Amino acid sequence: MDEEIQTVKADKLKSYHSMVTISEALPALGIVAAVLGVIKAMGALDQAPEVLGQLIGAALVGTFAGIFISYSVVSPIATKIKIVREKQMRLYIVVKQTLLGFMNGAMPQVALEHGRKTISAYERPTIDEVEQETLAGGGGTDPRAARKEAA
After folding, report:
1. Taking the chain, what is the end-to-end CA distance rounded to the nearest angstrom?
2. What is the b/e burial string over 44-80, where b = at least 16 CB atoms within 10 angstroms of the residue's CB?
3. Structure pTM?
4. Residue 24 CB: number of other CB atoms within 10 A?
5. What is the rounded CA–CA span in Å between residue 148 and residue 151?
6. Is 30 exposed, middle or buried (0-12, 13-18, 19+ CB in 10 A)?
7. Is residue 141 one of the residues assigned to a domain?
8. CA separation for the pair 38, 144 (Å, rounded)
9. Residue 24 belongs to what domain range?
10. How many CA atoms within 13 Å lie on the side-chain side of 75?
11. pLDDT band at residue 47, thresholds of 50, 70 and 90?
């Protein structure tokens, strides 16, 4: 199960790793743009100060753009991709922990609790909610209540 989880996780995080690589490369690309801008400004040393100022400003805009796009756009998108994909992977871990608990001899209710404990605290269902859903067979109604109504 661990191998399968690692394989699925690696597949799901490929886009995240690509975005991180782009995010790490953008500041360097901005520096290259700045160097090229400075080279162009050096070629125009005989021009008026206003022209040199514009060329140097353009060179600095390249640096700013590379850093800004990296840290303000691409990096947050990459982080969001990672968070969403890892959240999707939690289901596999919950199932794995539940099955391991059951295979190690725990009663089904205790094994289910092993899996429930791997869910983050703010998303974790209460024990009462889990019990209600398991007794209902996942259908949302309690079979004992249905039997009482039928009687």
Report:
1. 45
2. eeeeeeeeeeebbebbeebbebbeebbeeebbeebee
3. 0.67
4. 13
5. 5
6. buried
7. no
8. 79
9. 2-136
10. 12
11. confident
Type of residue found at 20 = V
Contact between 97 and 115 under an 8 Å Cβ cutoff? The reply is yes
Domains of the chain: total = 1
Distance separating alpha carbons of residues 51 and 59, to the nearest angstrom: 13
Query: In the numeric block, which tokens belong to residue 85?
Result: 């994909």
Q: Could you report the per-residue pLDDT of 89-110, keeping only the tens digit for each? A: 888 888 899 899 989 988 888 8
Tell me whether residue 143 is in a domain.
no
Which is it for the CA torsion 93, 98, 104, 106, positive or negative?
Answer: positive
**Amino acid residing at 38:** V
The 10 Å CB-count burial string (b at 16+, else e) for 105-119 is eeeeeebbbbbbeee
Structural domain contains residue 150: no
123 belongs to a structural domain: yes
